[in-house]
Amino acid sequence: MLLENNSGNGFSAETFFENRGGLTYSDFILLPGHIDFGADEVDLETRLTRNIKLKRPIVSSPMDTVTESKMAIYMALCGGIGIIHYNNTIEEQVKHVRLAKRFENGFITAPVVLGPDNTIADIDKIKKTYGFSGIPITEDGRTGSKLIGIVTHRDICFETNRQRKLKEVMTRELVTAQVGMTLQDGNRILKECKKGKLPIVDKEGRLVSLMSRTDLLKNEDFPNASKNATKQLLVGAALSTKEEDRERLEELAKAGVDVVVIDASQGDSVFQIDMIKYIKKKYPQVEVIGGNVVTARQCKSLIDAGADALRIGMGSGSICITQETLAVGRAQGSAVYHCAKFARGYGNVPVMADGGVSNLGHVAKALSLGASAVMLGALLAGTTEAPGEYFYEGGVRLKRYRGMASLEAMKEGGAKRYFSEEDKIKVAQGVSGAVVDRGSVVDLMEYFMQSLKHALQDLGCRTISDLHEALYNGTLRFETRSPSAQAEGGVHGLHSYKEPHLGFFKSVMTPREG
User: Fold this and answer.
1) Whose CA is closest to 510, among 343, 322, 378, 373?
2) Which residues are catalytic?
3) Does pTM top 0.85 for this prediction?
């Protein structure tokens, strides 16, 4: 029998959060459960929205220093999903979505194609923009025209004259396959011929689509990749509540976006409610994540409008100063618990925790409070796949990271999120800064997920669903952490020590949650 008043056993979430004020992730600890399974048996599959499942509960934030096509691609390959920011033109955002959708689709139905009179310099531009250089050459430089050659890296890597025309360097003896063949047959041909690209042509030799050996290898390297029914990678995009973003939405839907996040700092507004209703009526195939919200009342407004999931958090990000500037928001631990509890009982709508995560344990804590997924910004911003160039400061390799409500970002369009585009005086709700180089997001995600598996094992939960069941039936137990307990739980009492893998979190992230 569970004894609610026995502090030796901790407290249920309902008792712990009742009338206790605002709590952050650092204010509590989870008490261990019973282990009768290995960490590798933990299954991290989760719901992002009503109808979208992910193998891994991680989402990259729609910030212009975090998520563009490269981040979205590798987040999906690793089992999560990336949300493309909207601090750009419609055409630019759509391009990023299309790059992600086209990256791994078995058959690339809209390959990049050039003509015989294009130059090697054109290949260089494609390599810089898209990251690949194997380009089919057709008679008029378009898909649907007769295939006459292909240019690969080995054809041009030692060529010093980058103005040479492609007809002078392209490979003309081609291995092709006929339209209508299966993906399995294409994979077999690629293995047998040991080529990087396999053009798919019709009976007249006209280019229809393309297969890539790289994509075949990605299928083997990333078995948990987030894909839709047609084997395309899942990708999301951010929208504002502005009327003009309905045009943006139309183009995103054409590009095949799977989910849109309505990006507003305070989501409970008539503007967002109208946008959600519009999306669900005109584009029912597109899932909608509403937010940001931190109270049950806000959640009800957006769920009633038709939101397929909710984004929880206001003022808790590492670069956000909303709570200090406007005195509005909520401590993230309390916000996630109360919103997730309400949404579960009011339509069983998933919630995503956004903000307040400054170490790996906070990811597990967010899920333990009812979140189905966790959105990350700062922890991903320094990776190779994040937008921006590295620079050095004091001998440390860094990347820029800025809040979408920083004055710098608002000048480029971020003010749409804060209903302040027309304001003559801009009030910053975020700052600009820098984060250290964190290597590839692939390695980072692998480390995150192994840590998370061990966390769930220690709690005695095989799945995120089991974790949520334990949360609401009182099996999961909570206890307060005093400031000294928090200090005790970290590295202390040493003259010096060597940081473990990814130990940069301690030096990069500030201890405050707001």
Assistant:
1) 378
2) 320, 417
3) no
